[in-house]
Amino acid sequence: MDGAERRLAFHYKDKQLMENLLKDVNMAIKGSDASEEKEIVNNFLHKVSEAFLFVTIGSSGVGKSTFLNSLFQSTLSEKEIPESTKSIREYRYGVSEASICVNEYITRIFKNSEKLEGLQIIDAQGVEQMGQDGEQECIKDYLYKSSVVFVLFDVRSVNDYAVWDLLENVETRKVVFALTKCDLEEPDTLERQESKLRQYMEEAGLHAPVFRLSTQWEDSFKTVREYASGEIIGSSPVLTRQQENLNELKKMLSQLSESFERRRQQYESDAAILQNINTAIDNFIVNNRIKIDDLKIALKREIEKEIEAYEREVISKLEPQKIKERFPNGSRDFEDYLNLINEGYRKRMTDNVNRKTQMTVQTYLAGLENVFEEATGYLNKRENILALKDRFYGSMADSKKSMVYKAAADMEVTKDYYHSLYDVSTELFMKLWKARAEQEQAIRNAKLTGSLAGAAGGAVAGMAVAHALAPAVAAIGAKAGAGALATVFTSAGAVLWPVVGLVLGALVIRHIAKKLASANTLLELEKKTAEAIAEFKNEVAKAKVSMTEQILETIENMFRMEIENADKSFSEFRMSVNIEGNNIAKLEDKFSAINVWLQQIKELERRRELAL
After folding, report:
1. CB of 327 closer than 8 Å to CB of 334
2. Angle of CA points 567, 572, 573, to nearest 5°
3. Under the phi-then-psi rule, with left for phi > 0, alpha for psi from -120 to 50, and beta for the rest, what region is 69?
4. What is the spatial distance between Cα 50 and Cα 18, in angstroms, rounded to a whole number?
5. CA-CA distance, 548 to 309, in Å (whole number)?
6. How far out from the chain centre does Cα 411 lie?
7. pTM
8. Are 569 and 414 in contact (CB under 8 A)?
9. CA 20 to 30 Å from 76, out of 140, 494, 582, 606?
10. Phi, psi of 175, deg, nearest 5
11. pLDDT tens for residues 427-451?
12. Taking the C-alpha atoms of 571, 575, 576 and 581 in order, what is their torsion angle to the nearest 10 degrees?
């Protein structure tokens, strides 16, 4: 097998392996969180080409086509006298002959040349003739994908701004400069112009060789051809291009592997923080369950005791012989009396329920304050392992850092709010509690209607409320109005607080009063009194059960919602960690895949050595 056949066989096998490898890499990275990563990979895959791509740029008449003909010792144009290049001609060398119009700017020409197999040559018209729209975008795309860019200047016009503008799209390691028509200038002028060119190159951040070419191309072209063969193309354009691709791919895989490792470390660190936070909340719930149960037992006893006292007091007044004496105006006096007793006991129960509930709530909030203090400490000390300069996960690191900072800041405000509620007066406590509940309700309503953009963006209701009420503690002061409690108790819907209702409803009281007032004789009054007492006891028994259930259910819901609101403070952080936890298994698969790909790259490099 001769060298050309070996090269072709090697080329065919490697082409398939390389394509499969790049497809695998692309599929593995598609699920990435960072848009930058996808763009990097897509650009890399877009840039990778089987061919070794040469691009020449320069003004009209500078000698671009002649330069390429001399460099490759081949005639690009089939005409004896080459015409000026129109638009962009893309020459591809292989085993077929064809000409295809790619678009209105590009003509792709396939040529049969074993000597130039694996080369792709771009010969474009003068830069000053290119339009600002599609044609210039096409040449910029070629520049980005190029293996090497030859920049040609007429020695008399090295300050061609149109050329320098295009060079902004060129990688610095792939540029070669050439000054043409050097034999037409005096030596001192030539030195001055080359010095000016190198100054422009330095200003553009381009460090590249500069060759001087004369109008007698072959006489001055030997050094250019030797440089292109030895330093750029190598012994085989295909193998050289593939090696460049592999080197770039190895670099990318190495960076990707490092990013995976940092991401895994970040997850493990954040998972440990979340576990500490979850443990703190779980311990708090367990430790405070007894306080809540004790409160419910105490309130149940208090309600039962007061309702039983109410029942005894009312029954003690229902003596038939004295009813008419005590209630001379009949049912109206008796109804007023029952309403008065009703309201008196309701107020007594309200005071006792509020006092005991507030004491427990304040102790509860003091415990939550400690939980938040602990959690804030964890987040403030969180190490940002994902560095923002990371090539693949910079945006995700920035997002995570912002999320942690926001969570810690919100928790700090809420912790201060809990502390403010701990030792205030009853009136101020209830006023703040009411304000917070109403704010929470407003946020919930806004979320439902979509009118509060900020709340829909993941802000926790409790946190938004904490920010809203942060200045309220100082603003309200210790001089809450005397009507604060009454306002809280009668506010419907927005306030979750145990509200004590009337023992008996107005209809029941009116019915009993009318029954007693309808008796005409003492005997009938005694009978109706007995019936009224039985009805009264029955209604009181039902009221005791209903009121107790309502109060205890409200107490349970109140503490449940309080812990839920507190727990929601960590929801974004928890969600982030949990999602990342699901992704870790995929990351481990990617680690394994990277090792396999690197082994495949080694195999490609081994074949290249054998082919050479």
Report:
1. yes
2. 85
3. alpha
4. 9
5. 15
6. 20
7. 0.57
8. yes
9. 140
10. -125, 135
11. 788 787 777 777 777 766 765 665 4
12. 140
Q: Distance (Å, rounded) from C-alpha 580 to C-alpha 263?
A: 9
Tokens of 129: 């003739």
Where b means 16+ CB within 10 Å and e means fewer, 409-420 reads ebbbbbbbbbbb
* Percent with pLDDT over 90 in the chain: 12
Residue reference for tokens 């009118």: 451
* Exposure b/e, 376-392, CB count within 10 A at least 16 = b: bebbeebeebbeeebbb
HSE (side-chain half, CA atoms, 13 Å) at 535:
18
Q: Could you tell me if 125 and 160 are in contact, meaning their C-beta atoms sit under 8 angstroms apart?
A: no
Amino acid at 456: A
Question: CA 45, CA 497: separation in Å to the nearest integer?
Answer: 62
CB 17 within 8 A of CB 84: no
Q: How far is 120 from 470, CA to CA, in rounded Å? A: 68
Instruction: Measure the CA–CA gap between 144 and 149, rounded to whole angstroms.
Output: 10
Measured distance CA(41)–CA(25) in Å, rounded: 8
Considering all CA atoms of the chain, what is the largest pairwise distance in Å, rounded to the nearest integer? Answer: 144
First CA to last CA across the chain, in angstroms? 13
Q: H or E stretch including 486? A: helix 484-490
DSSP 237: H
Q: Which domains does the chain have, with CATH numbers?
A: 1-43 (no CATH), 51-235 (3.40.50.300), 262-405+423-432+495-592 (no CATH)
Separation of alpha carbons 404 and 411, rounded Å: 11
Listing DSSP states for 151-197 in one string gives EEEETT-TT-HHHHHHGGGS-GGGEEEEEE-GGGS-HHHHHHHHHHH
Q: What is the pLDDT of residues 96-120, one digit of tens each?
A: 677 777 777 788 787 777 667 767 8
